[in-house]
Amino acid sequence: MIQMIGISLALLNFIIIIRHFIRHLRMSDAKAEAARQENQDILDSVSEGLFLLDQNGVIGAGHSKSIEEIFKTTQLTGNRLLEVLKPLVPEKSVMGK
Asked: What is the pLDDT of residues 41-61, one digit of tens each?
């Protein structure tokens, strides 16, 4: 009987801990989503061409809508900046040619 009570209390404690963890996880997810949405709203409202590059020159998912007009493409995310610029720059403008 004592073992059953002990096991039941341990199980109850485990459930309480899991519920607490899940609640904090949901709150963190909601905060992260709110921040992401705020960043996207800012990027959507600026008239300047803003985008992020990683160390390899690849354009990130966060970029302003106006940059799509500047580069004349909506396929920016995941592409290298040089590849996006290539159709916009005349061949004889490139250094060394």
From this structure: 888 888 888 888 999 999 988
